[in-house]
Amino acid sequence: MINKFKGHLKTVLIHKYYVLKNCVMAGIPIRGIVHDLSKFSPIEFFEGVKYYQGDRSPIDACKEINGYSKAWMHHKGRNKHHYQYWQDNFDYGGVPIQMPFEDALELVCDYLGAGMAYQKENFTYSKEYEWWKNKCSKGIKMHPQTKRFVEMMLYRMKQDKSNKILRKNSAKKIYNLAEKFTESDAKLKQEK
């Protein structure tokens, strides 16, 4: 149990380090500093220790065993950088809401930080983009504009082999472009 405690704590701190590094690049350093502080709350931290494996999120392991995760329920409701925070109207099937720019930008930094923490020296922007395409972008209930923003950002990083697109002005242009594309798609659907 001590090794799982140390391993989980180390993984959380490494993740926070990489998120901070990416948030500094993105011009949102304060968000990097306060990122995921709820992971140190008892409900999140001790579930993380219990299901710690070292190569993936303990939340995923907990969900596989129990069908849900109390830590995840706590975490997503307190951290605006998760798209699941931006959901409403569950009585009517749930409606994804467009994430504000800085929350969406922190989400991208969070994905990068998780990839860097778990993949370690095997991390590449190309692998991160493939992870997104294969595991996350299909079927998730994320607002179309937010989904397009994340995809465009990760694609550019794959192409550039760099996270320089995170710079706030560049990322804001991608965010606005994703919004325009999404509006165009909506208009086309209405015309059909």
Give a brief rundown of this model.
By secondary structure, this protein is mainly alpha-helical. The chain has 9 helices and 2 strands; from the N terminus they run αααααββαααα.
Strand/helix succession:
HHHHHEEHHHH
Strand arrangement within the widest β-sheet reads: 1-2
Low-confidence stretches: none
Major beta-sheet overview: 2 strands, antiparallel
Alpha plus pi helix count: 9
What's the number of extended β-strand segments? 2
Summed over residues and divided by their number, the pLDDT gives a mean of 92
Secondary structure class reads mainly alpha
Query: First CA to last CA: what distance?
Result: 59 Å
Please indicate the percent range of residues in DSSP E strands (runs of 2 or more). Answer: under 5%
Shape: globular
Helix content: 55-70%
Output the radius of gyration: 17 Å
Topology record:
Blueprint: H1 2-26, H2 29-34, H3 42-50, H4 58-66, H5 70-76, E1 87-88, E2 95-96, H6 101-119, H7 125-136, H8 144-160, H9 168-191
Antiparallel strand pairs: 1-2
Summarize this structure as a short list of keywords or feature phrases.
192 residues; mainly alpha; globular
Describe this structure as you would to a colleague.
It is a single chain. Helix 1 (about 1-25) crosses helix 3, helix 1 crosses helix 6 and helix 7 packs antiparallel against helix 8. With about 190 residues, this protein is mainly α. The radius of gyration is 17 Å and the shape is globular. The protein has nine helices and two strands; from the N terminus they run H-H-H-H-H-E-E-H-H-H-H. It has helices at about 1-25, 30-35, 40-50, 60-65, 70-75, 100-120, 125-135, 145-160, 170-190; strands spanning about 85-90, 95. About 65% of the residues lie in helices and about 0% in strands. The mean pLDDT is about 90.
